[in-house]
Amino acid sequence: MGEFVRLEVSDGVGTIRLDRPKMNALNVQVQEEIRAAATEASERDDVKAVVLYGGERVFAAGADIKEMADMSYTDMVKRSGALQSSFGTVARIPKPVVAAVTGYALGGGCELALCADVRFAAADAVLGQPEILLGIIPGAGGTQRLTRLVGPSKAKDIIFTGRFVKADEALAIGLVDRVVPADQVYDEAVSWARQFAGGASFAVRAAKESIDRGVEVDLETGLEIERQQFAALFATEDRTIGMQSFVESGPGKAQFRGR
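Structure (tokenized):
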């Protein structure tokens, strides 16, 4: 368990909890602890889905600018790859991941939320990529993941201006998927994640990989990715259980074993 980031597991749901007061600034240590927590969540069989959470007050207000201000070009050449790969470790968790966004999710905080499969936001949450106001651009995936999520023109508006995006607009443009009262964000995220606790883990994993890999390639290649994943699931015990249960008892009653 890291100093500022920990993985808490309960009833099949793993919560990656950021806890670096006051604003969960994402310094190098936090970045590496996020990597470690995401790796552990990926590897643990008792974790079926993951919630990203920064606490009741703030998700993450961005990078640690005091730390970054002293870095030279050569320093950042060395660090930028590790920065991207630490967040990439979250994006590659082979399980459903939901970001529970409270308060501010700015800069690196927004980029971390973008690594989740879905995002639930508090009604008073604020997201954005204000790096341009510092004379730089997003460096942990923002120019790429935000564009894929909301489209190039909306991403350019948000990134070029560095403006803040309130929860209602974020919902309208697809930056977040659900807006709820602030005191319900975490519970809503856990409830969504918990539905996978008894699910067909390898099928969910295959679906996530097919979607994530498919959007990176042309249609024909994407279809081939899907075909291979689809066929491979016929080697799993869960596929046998699911189909037998359907034939005998109808849909939605299978007791999967995750293998």
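The chain has eleven helices and nine strands. Strands lie at 5-10, 13-18, 49-53, 97-101, 104-106, 118-122, 126-128, 164-166, 178-180.
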